[in-house]
Recover the amino acids of this structure.
């Protein structure tokens, strides 16, 4: 699509000459003899660039640009003037006018500037596109979670995204903590600013302070100039402190001060710097326990856990497995150019009964491998990793064998029913039993729960 330029000048011969010139350069041109006519055109069409004179009868160039800002804030403005004066230059620049050309015009110079603006415009578009992509990617609807536990997570995310209080996300490895941290950022008012990740376990202890808070020139050998820390880089946006539980004790008071006062002291500096940084932290440790054992400061824990989101392990929300599988199969079909429809019943059964110690990440990896190795259009158990085929859902090691078998059976049927959204016919099919047999078993479990409930003395 050719770029569109609007030329505004009260001198007819000039605007026509320019239109012809740009037309020859493959640009789409429109012309206007005064600002009013130009504003009318801008209301009707989109322009990439407006090239306007400053001195015009009626509304002058400066006033025109004022009005243009409201109508088409993305349009880039280039001004032409025969009388460059400091005053008009300053007011024009304040209005966001990008550049000037001086009359009489040198067409090649003008073209050069216009080309420059077009490039700039392209970059703007690209950036906008990437931002949108990033946002779409972290849109809540992209986080799979049909289970009650995940629905609760979503409702908290929606609420906290709207403010700036610290959030602590806990949960086992691979449960989606970082995904949720990004969702908080990209669903709130800070989404246009940066989301900066710092992995507390990956930075050597000696460098953490400088990394987080920056330093001034000469603070230590090798500090040849001032350097911003990640707190300042993320100012306006969000700083994600991944694996917070690994932050060395001696750094914790500084982090507390920074979060409480929104002020940081770069290494070697005398004066604190204000920041506006939202903190989202994550950990797979039990921080309360760490506090008890003296490895984590209590005050920092309370400061950062104002809102805590716990990501449930996948084995406690097996009903999310089928949808996650669909999502990942779709994703890897795209990436690996395959057309796999889904899983065989036996393969799905395997996934539903596995332990998933590595949670969603492990499931994702299993599906990636399966999509890669599947020859037909259905994933079958033979492309699942061996350990997954061998492992079974562990029963607790108490009670008789009969108790254990029954417990397993009831839990398993329950999980399959949740996975099929209560569709008993589909569940029976997955379980490999008849529908009537499934009903019998369910009745038996119901009877048992009722019996235990009645029989158990209140404790
Ligand atoms: N509910 C979900 N829906 C879709 N994809 C998910 C979901 N949860 C996790 N994932 C995917 O699983 C992978 C692991 O997620 P993430 O990195 O957020 O986990 P984590 O809890 O931060 O893990 P770790 O503690 O190991 O850093 C990522 O590829 C992520 O996109
Ligand atoms: Mg993570």
């Amino acid at each position: 699509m050719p770029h569109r330029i609007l030329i505004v000048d009260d001198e007819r011969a000039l605007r026509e000459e320019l239109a012809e010139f740009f037309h020859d350069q493959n640009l789409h041109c429109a012309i206007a003899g005064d600002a009013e006519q130009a504003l009318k055109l801008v209301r009707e069409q989109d322009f990439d660039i407006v090239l306007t004179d400053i001195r015009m009868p009626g509304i002058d160039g400066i006033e025109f640009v004022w009005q243009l800002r409201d109508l088409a804030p993305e349009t880039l403005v280039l001004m032409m003037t025969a009388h460059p004066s400091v005053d008009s230059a300053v007011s024009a620049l304040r209005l966001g006018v990008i550049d000037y050309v001086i009359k009489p015009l040198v067409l090649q110079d003008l073209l050069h500037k216009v080309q420059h603006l077009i490039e700039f415009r392209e970059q703007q578009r690209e950036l906008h596109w990437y931002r949108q992509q990033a946002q779409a990617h972290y849109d809540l609807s992209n986080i799979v979670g049909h289970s009650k536990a995940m629905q609760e997570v979503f409702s908290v995310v929606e609420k906290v995204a709207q403010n700036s209080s610290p959030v602590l996300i806990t949960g086992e490895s691979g449960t989606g903590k970082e995904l949720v941290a990004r969702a908080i950022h990209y669903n709130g008012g800070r989404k246009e600013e940066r989301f900066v990740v710092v992995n507390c376990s990956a930075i050597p202890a000696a460098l953490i302070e400088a990394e987080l808070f920056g330093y001034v020139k000469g603070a230590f050998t090798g500090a040849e100039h001032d350097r911003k820390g990640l707190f300042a880089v993320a100012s306006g946006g969000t700083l994600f402190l991944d694996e917070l539980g690994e932050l060395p004790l001696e750094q914790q008071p500084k982090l507390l001060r920074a979060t409480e006062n929104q002020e940081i002291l770069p290494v070697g500096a005398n004066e604190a710097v204000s920041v506006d940084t939202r903190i989202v932290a994550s950990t797979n440790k039990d921080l309360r326990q760490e506090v008890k054992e003296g490895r984590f400061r209590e005050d920092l824990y309370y400061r950062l856990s104002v809102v805590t989101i716990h990501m449930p392990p996948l084995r406690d929300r097996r009903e999310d497995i089928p949808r996650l599988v669909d999502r990942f199969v779709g994703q890897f079909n795209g990436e690996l150019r395959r057309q796999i429809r889904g899983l065989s019943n036996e393969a799905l059964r395997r996934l539903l009964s596995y332990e998933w110690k590595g949670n969603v990440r492990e499931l994702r990896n299993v599906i990636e491998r399966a999509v890669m190795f599947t020859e037909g259009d259905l994933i079958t158990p033979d492309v699942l990793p061996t350990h997954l085929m061998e492992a079974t859902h562990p029963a607790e090691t108490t009670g008789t064998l009969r108790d254990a078998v029954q417990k397993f059976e009831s839990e398993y049927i329950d999980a399959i029913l949740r996975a099929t959204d209560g569709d008993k016919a589909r569940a029976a099919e997955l379980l490999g039993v008849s529908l009537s047999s499934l009903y019998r078993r369910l009745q038996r479990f119901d009877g048992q729960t009722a019996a235990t409930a009645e029989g158990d003395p209140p404790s």
About this structure: Residues 143-145, 171, 173-179, 284, 324, 327, 360-361, 364 surround adenosine-5'-triphosphate (ligand 1) (CB under 6 Å). The chain is about 50% helix and 15% strand.
